[in-house]
Write a structure and sequence with these properties.
The protein is about 20% helix and about 30% strand. By secondary structure, it is α+β, with helices and mostly antiparallel strands. It has a six-stranded mixed β-sheet with strand order 3-5-7-8-9-10. A two-stranded antiparallel ribbon has the order 1-2. The N and C termini lie far apart (about 60 Å).
């Protein structure tokens, strides 16, 4: 094989270079997420900047499955549950909660990609190593300012490996969340409706 053929073969084997999206001067807006080509799955928009997700840990996916399954069984008929749907909080912020409980009437069909904050009854974030600051501070603060009435933050217990659920309710006067409990092993609450979840069922095939 000639040197020219070798060089051509090498070029064909090289992966195509990825071109990062270049933001406008004023930053991206929430509607841009549906228009920017080639974005990785679960891209969020925080303060006009794109935020890309790291690969999910097994704890993260199992916890989402456990909570989603339990909530689907216990949610009243006028509410529904979805995972990894973005919420347009304002023109510069479109985060993607891990799970949302929302008013069923807000369902617009199979092509829907986002909700309005007033559609959301409960937003849940499962904390990952790369999302600690966002999930503990940035995102709950923004959910509260947008009027989302309930928020759960879920972390992994370092001793047991099980989920620990921190529950919060919105104070409409201050537009900030107040804590309502920290739940180990079992999450039992009446807010925003009667919920009873066995957190020790994390790794059972039929929680």
């Amino acid at each position: 094989m000639s040197a020219a053929s070798d060089q051509e073969h090498e070029l064909q084997d090289e992966p195509e270079q990825y071109h990062w999206p270049i933001p406008p001067v004023e930053g991206w807006t929430v509607d841009d997420l549906d228009r920017i080509p080639g974005l990785p799955p679960h891209t969020e928009l925080i303060d006009g900047s794109l935020v890309f997700m790291s690969p999910q840990r097994r704890f993260h996916t199992r916890t989402m499955y456990l909570l989603e399954s339990a909530l689907l069984r216990q949610t009243p008929d006028h509410l529904d549950v979805d995972r990894e749907m973005t919420v347009k909080l304002d023109v510069w912020n479109r985060p993607e909660p891990d799970i949302v409980v929302y008013h069923a009437e807000a369902d617009t069909g199979d092509d829907q990609t986002w909700f309005k904050p007033e559609d959301i009854v409960l937003a849940i974030e499962v904390v990952s190593p790369d999302s600690v600051i966002r999930d503990r501070d940035v995102k709950p603060r923004k959910y509260a300012e947008a009027g989302v009435p309930h928020f759960w933050r879920v972390e992994q217990d370092g001793a047991t490996g099980l989920p620990v659920v921190h529950t919060f309710v919105l104070d409409p006067g201050t537009k900030a969340y107040g804590p309502t409990g920290v739940h180990f092993d079992r999450l039992k609450t009446s807010r925003p409706f009667d919920i009873d979840i066995d957190l020790t069922a994390l790794n059972r095939r039929r929680p």
